[in-house]
């Protein structure tokens, strides 16, 4: 197609998603949905402009900003990162490497690039001082950064991230707490995942150990970061496809530890997904009540990618603390959405007020009513002088957006740590007082103080062991099970299993019990959040070389049939709800070590 036929009208893109308007899907939605959804497939065609000035002139930014081509012919630049020394790097997923893009004379135009690391599927990149972290689909690497900007040998610190499926593009960042945060997208559009780590934000130590689920129900949060002044973690999540052109909004979430954000059963501002039902025993209404709604929404199917907070300097003062997000662009909306960079406007208190277009013009309408695009955007990063780098991974271009009047360099900001480490505690039997003198007897496939069989460990089959216990005192209405490891370094104790509202007539749990938040057999049994961040049993995995850890299997007989808690409750919530209701308790200690 001849390029000159394409540039007739710049398509206006809606700013914030209108929550009122045509709603899809339409019909009755619930356990047995009967809904009609109308979807679109509309893929704009790529357009190439060889002249840099002509290409930049087709793009629009707010008054006072200028757009220039910083580098081109880069094939597939995806995620961007600027090192402590001020160098710009880009990952290239399709090529499978990381490149250093060099502007030696500082004229705002790159002279060339060189490869500094290579692994298949390389995608996420983050710096922590002179250390760089890289992530592929399943693996996380770390390396030291040399004085010339090259990377030393890559050391693999994680090798078992969940498989990617539909969303294999892992990203990562180093948080204010010094820990690694890793985004693991869903394997599907909307489904029940087989890995509890899919559709989550994970957190691990810088050496890759102690990995846990920080937040869940996040379909594909590629772009996330911490507000430079408040330290609050924010992320843009991709909405579910095939719910209609005007559904689902792209979500701006305040991401907090232990919270779930709805996917796959609830989307947007609490709307139920007609396609999928929550696990047996949980209604859509319950799942919605257990989920956290987004703070803001943006045009459906715009496809948010990398996010970068601007720390101030080089941009106007009103942009200090704002976030910029690359919107890759839709393939399944009419009219198309995205193909732009948006600005999330945060007020002085660090609260987001709006999402608005910042860099536009990449989406072009043709004479015949079709659409073409100048770029599909993926990466954004702030330069040392405060300019904004923007990567187009389809045409292989990186743009530089600067402001004519702003002075100063981008401020070096260390956001405060808003996630303090958990306080040390005791095992549950030392925290809860039973009213009676009779102790429960607990039995399992190991003797008291004996070694727990390998198959129940995290590196074995990771299945729950079978348990039996003696009948509780007269008046027992339910039981609670808590399994604690007080020998763990953090959290202390590490909780491996929480089950509550176990019916009074149940005095045994079978081997390999499901890990869902609520079970149908035993009916009504709820499972709380373990220290891994999932529900149900998670097997022992103490550090290699540690003396055998002691695992306390603790049973409590209660005088109430229910604690009144939702499924997935945290340990502290369960212990607080138990207070004053415990008639009897008992425990069995098993041990486990890794050589």
Automatic annotation (TrEMBL):
<dbReference type="InterPro" id="IPR005247">
    <property type="entry name" value="YbhB_YbcL/LppC-like"/>
</dbReference>
<feature type="domain" description="Pyrroloquinoline quinone-dependent pyranose dehydrogenase beta-propeller">
    <location>
        <begin position="60"/>
        <end position="403"/>
    </location>
</feature>
<feature type="region of interest" description="Disordered">
    <location>
        <begin position="512"/>
        <end position="541"/>
    </location>
</feature>
<feature type="signal peptide">
    <location>
        <begin position="1"/>
        <end position="23"/>
    </location>
</feature>
<dbReference type="InterPro" id="IPR008914">
    <property type="entry name" value="PEBP"/>
</dbReference>
<dbReference type="Pfam" id="PF22807">
    <property type="entry name" value="TrAA12"/>
</dbReference>
<dbReference type="InterPro" id="IPR011042">
    <property type="entry name" value="6-blade_b-propeller_TolB-like"/>
</dbReference>
<dbReference type="InterPro" id="IPR036610">
    <property type="entry name" value="PEBP-like_sf"/>
</dbReference>
<dbReference type="InterPro" id="IPR054539">
    <property type="entry name" value="Beta-prop_PDH"/>
</dbReference>
<dbReference type="InterPro" id="IPR011041">
    <property type="entry name" value="Quinoprot_gluc/sorb_DH_b-prop"/>
</dbReference>
<dbReference type="Pfam" id="PF01161">
    <property type="entry name" value="PBP"/>
</dbReference>
<protein>
    <submittedName>
        <fullName>Raf kinase inhibitor-like YbhB/YbcL family protein</fullName>
    </submittedName>
</protein>
<keyword id="KW-0732">Signal</keyword>
